[in-house]
Amino acid sequence: MLKVTSCTINSCSRNCDWILDSGATDHVCNNLQLFESYYDIKPLDVRLPNGSSVLAYFAGSIRVNKDLVLKDVLFLPNFKINLVSIPRLTQHDNYSVAFSGNLCVIQDLSLKKIGSGKLLGGLYHLEYGGNTSDAVVSNISVSNKNSFTIPTSALWHYRFGHVSSSKLEMLCKDFPSIVANKGLICDICHFAKQRKMPFSLSNNRASASFDLVHLDVWGPCSLPSIHAYKYFLKIVDDYSRFTWIVLLKSNSEVRNKVLDFTALVENQFAKKIKVLRSDNGTEFHLEDLCRKQGIIHQFSCVETPEQNARVERKHQHILGVARALTMQSAIPKYLWTYAILHAVFLINRMPSLVLDKCSPFQLLHNSLPDLNDLKTFGCLSYASTILAGRSKFDHRAKKCVFLGYPPHMKGAVLYDVLRKQIFISRHVVYHENVFPYHGTLSVNQPQCWDPSSGSIIDSSTSPISHQSPPETTSTLTSPVSEPPDLSPLPLPQDLSDSPPNPELIINPVPIRQSLRPHKPPCHLQDYLCNSSTTTSCT
Predict the structure, then answer these.
(1) How far apart are CA 401 and CA 417, in angstroms?
(2) pLDDT at residue 16 above 80?
């Protein structure tokens, strides 16, 4: 990497003479103080006219006057003279050089005179015209001297703390003694005040699906998900704005996931991705993939997310919806991946003004999405239990929370609040106005909800069976961490003397006896069976 270093520009004097040489291949200078800027180069072997050679370690630019700048000048401190290469001026800088008698004229493409030379001692010497220090303000010196000279035209600019030229011109109207230089170029102003360039609003859009695909990785998340995911890869089609989310445990998985996505596009949509656009992250080094499939990979500049703005805005949209879903449902935070997936599921089915009031799903699949089975995220749901391992008196349903829809399956993703398990089921009953994780959630005891308000019904207002005393009814609003009090209630001391309560007296039900004659089983008909009795000895 070349390191450019600025130095002080001093006015050139007669002892710093330049000779115009048509046989030199490069400009050569022996005084480092004449350079406007210079940088390190790979050691370059320079052959001198006497046959010897020296190495050049630096090159840079030298301003001869306000119009003529010599570029790529080699610095050779042991060289006794300074050379201006005529081939460099004519071939590389597109200048024209005309020789006539004792004069030499250098012109630019517009035939404007930008330099001249005179014949002295059989050689053409370059003349210095104009005040070179007015064109560029003196820069920070790299020599041993720490002081530099401020040009006269820049004095008021320095006095007012590097004020802008427009404001300095306003002061000139009221104070004629103030001098303003419109063409002033000040390094200190750039070093101290320069900001990022503004971005123009881009309304460009791909003409077909998968002509341009945006990629971006979000993460790592401070809280890993229930399945140990920390990242997710976001893929956005520029034409339809349809979004795919791929969950990742490490950003090193990006390459394989992009390969899988290209195969998905080719097989399911019969198309090929033409252009990929991403940032400069190391996880997006996909040179082999792009070269083999003829994909153009566009990168944004370093620390310039505005050049990849569409996927960045989509990232903000997804997080906003996912945040709202988790707040409305109050689900545990380790289920954040399901909120992200369901947010993208909803965004892909919502119309957008950018898409002429169409949804991304409609543009990609050329059909309207089916919204008949759409349910509220995080609502209470009861899933039917499976027959395997279920007895006649086991529960026929499990209390769950709805977490979205799985891809390529007709069912629902549910979270069992008792067993802390995630599963997929089709046989589900939803209660969309009830959110179990809001307020107190009891997973070990039955609860009742008021459908109108969605709140838990207090146990004191619920009907109580006459077969159980009211003292043994547990409060439904107790925290889950507190186990119910199962200790026996103390009996009153005067219970035997108190009159019996008719509501608490339970008449025993007589046991029904069968009247059918008893016969021995068929396999015992050929045997004589005797019954034996046991008497207790006292």
Answers:
(1) 7
(2) no
Site of tokens 């008909």: 525
* pLDDT bracket for residue 399 (50, 70, 90): very high
383: tokens are 């899933």
Distance of CA 126 to the CA centre of its chain: 56
Cis peptide before 492 (omega within 30 of 0): no
Q: Which residues contact 104 (CB under 8 A, 6 or more apart)?
A: 20, 97, 98, 116, 117, 118, 119, 124
Reduced to 3 states, what is the DSSP secondary structure of residue 34?
helix
Above 80 in pLDDT, residue 455?
no
Are the C-beta atoms of 71 and 48 separated by less than 8 Å? Answer: no
C-alpha to C-alpha distances, 149 to 8, 47, 48, 122, nearest whole angstrom: 9, 37, 36, 37
In the three-class reduction of DSSP (H, G, I as helix; E, B as strand; rest coil), residue 389 is classed as coil
Task: Looking at mean pLDDT, say which of 168-182, 195-209, 318-332 comes out highest.
Answer: 318-332
- What is the phi-psi region of residue 203: left when phi exceeds 0, alpha when psi lies from -120 to 50, beta otherwise? alpha
Q: Exposed, middle or buried, 316 (CB in 10 Å: 0-12/13-18/19+)?
A: exposed
Lowest-pLDDT choice from 90-99, 109-118, 120-129, 290-299? 120-129
Are 9 and 38 in contact by the 8 Å Cβ rule? The answer is no
Q: Which of 79, 75, 124 is closest to 98 using CA atoms?
A: 124
The mean per-residue pLDDT over the stretch 112-133 comes to 74
Rounded-to-integer distance, Cα 253 and Cα 233, Å: 9
SS3 helix, strand, coil % of the chain, rounded to 5? 25, 25, 55
Sheet holding 412-416, edge to edge: 421-425, 412-416, 397-404, 380-384, 428-431
Q: How far apart are CA 506 and CA 467, in angstroms?
A: 8
DSSP E strand stretches across 35-147: 37-47, 53-63, 69-75, 82-85, 96-100, 103-107, 113-120, 123-126
What is the set of domains in the chain, with CATH numbers? 4-135 (2.40.70), 152-193 (no CATH), 212-365 (3.30.420.10), 372-471 (no CATH)
Q: State the pLDDT at residue 527.
A: 64
Structure-derived torsion over alpha carbons of residues 312, 315, 319, 322, reported in degrees to the nearest 10: 160
